[in-house]
Amino acid sequence: MIRVELVFALPDEQFVLPLALPSASTVGDALERAGRDLVFSRFPLTSGAVGIWGEVSDRSRVLQDGDRLELYRPLQVDPRTARRRRAADAGGD
Q1: For residue 19, which of 71, 78, 85, 7 has the smallest C-alpha distance?
Q2: Cα separation of 27 and 91, whole Å?
Q3: DSSP codes of every residue in 19-79
Q4: Separation between Cα atoms, residue 43 and residue 30, nearest integer Å
Q5: Residue partners of 53: CB distance under 8 A and separation at least 6
Q6: Is residue 64 packed enough to be buried (19+ CB in 10 Å), middle (13-18) or exposed (0-12)?
Q7: Which residue among 3, 17, 28, 71 is least enclosed by CB atoms within 10 Å?
Q8: Is there a contact between 69 and 45 (Cβ–Cβ < 8 Å)?
């Protein structure tokens, strides 16, 4: 068995789900198991990007004991667009 953590963060709240999985379990296996959890079943487990320790990962990747599996929210605004807006606002008028 391996132990991993699944995390999902909202702007004002973070959710953490510890999971015990059989050795050789994949990211997809962990997400499937999390879908049975009352809280995590509300989150986008089947779509969107996921990562391990801040690095985007494929759902077929095999997990290691102690991995931190992260669910990423879609961007609300493209970062380049946000920078342009901030620059325009800082320019005055």
Answers
A1: 7
A2: 45
A3: EEE-TT-BHHHHHHHHTTSTTGGGS-SSSS-EEETTEEE-TTPBP-TT-EEEEPPPPSS-H
A4: 14
A5: 67, 68, 70
A6: exposed
A7: 3
A8: no
Q: Which residues contact 71 (CB under 8 A, 6 or more apart)?
A: 6, 7, 8, 43, 44, 45, 48, 50
Residue 34 near residue 47 (C-beta atoms within 8 A) = no
Give the C-alpha separation, 17 to 52, whole Å. 14
pLDDT score, position 87 = 83
Which SS3 state, helix, strand or coil, does residue 92 take?
coil
| Run of H or E including 83 | helix 79-90
Residues 6+ away with beta carbon under 8 Å from 74: 48
